[in-house]
């Protein structure tokens, strides 16, 4: 299997990609724990079947010192004991925000209450944008068939 299209090799794709990446960097400056952001991005990527993004966020979690148990159980976080209540609220928001087409109400009031309990307004703004951004990134990766397996931690920060 090969990638269909290299967005970064296309001048317009690269120009848009740089702005997209800049938004992602702003989210990383939000004050939310980096682990929470990566767990959310990993979970959305798993749901959306984006191999590239799943690879990226798995590698980033491992490089940050996350245990294999916490990384491997993200897909089954509801039945796991290794996540904090705040992480669980963020993961619920991620799942419900990602599965909008599957949910009759989008993000449930119960999930929203959990998010409000653990995060302030600035953090909630970042969480919402993160869910939107990772879902967009997943769609870019799936549509252009970006393959997983070649990412290594920090490969973009050196550029």
TrEMBL record:
<protein>
    <submittedName>
        <fullName>AhpD family alkylhydroperoxidase</fullName>
    </submittedName>
</protein>
<dbReference type="InterPro" id="IPR004675">
    <property type="entry name" value="AhpD_core"/>
</dbReference>
<feature type="domain" description="Carboxymuconolactone decarboxylase-like">
    <location>
        <begin position="24"/>
        <end position="96"/>
    </location>
</feature>
<dbReference type="InterPro" id="IPR029032">
    <property type="entry name" value="AhpD-like"/>
</dbReference>
<dbReference type="Pfam" id="PF02627">
    <property type="entry name" value="CMD"/>
</dbReference>
<keyword id="KW-0575">Peroxidase</keyword>
<dbReference type="InterPro" id="IPR003779">
    <property type="entry name" value="CMD-like"/>
</dbReference>
<dbReference type="GO" id="GO:0051920">
    <property type="term" value="F:peroxiredoxin activity"/>
</dbReference>
<keyword id="KW-0560">Oxidoreductase</keyword>
């Amino acid at each position: 299997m090969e990638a269909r299209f290299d967005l970064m090799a296309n001048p317009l794709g690269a120009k848009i990609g740089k702005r997209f990446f800049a938004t992602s960097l702003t989210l990383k400056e939000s004050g939310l724990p980096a682990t929470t952001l990566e767990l959310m991005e990993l979970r959305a990527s798993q749901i959306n079947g984006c191999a590239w993004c799943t690879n990226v966020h798995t590698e980033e979690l491992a490089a940050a010192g996350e245990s294999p148990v916490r990384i491997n159980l993200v897909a089954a976080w509801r039945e796991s004991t290794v996540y904090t209540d705040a992480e669980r609220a963020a993961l619920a928001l991620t799942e419900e925000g990602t599965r909008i087409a599957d949910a009759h109400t989008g993000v449930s009031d119960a999930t929203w209450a959990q998010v409000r309990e653990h995060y302030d307004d600035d953090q909630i703004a970042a969480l919402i944008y993160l869910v939107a951004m990772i879902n967009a990134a997943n769609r870019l990766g799936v549509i252009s068939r970006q393959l997983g397996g070649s990412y290594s931690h920090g490969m973009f920060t050196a550029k």
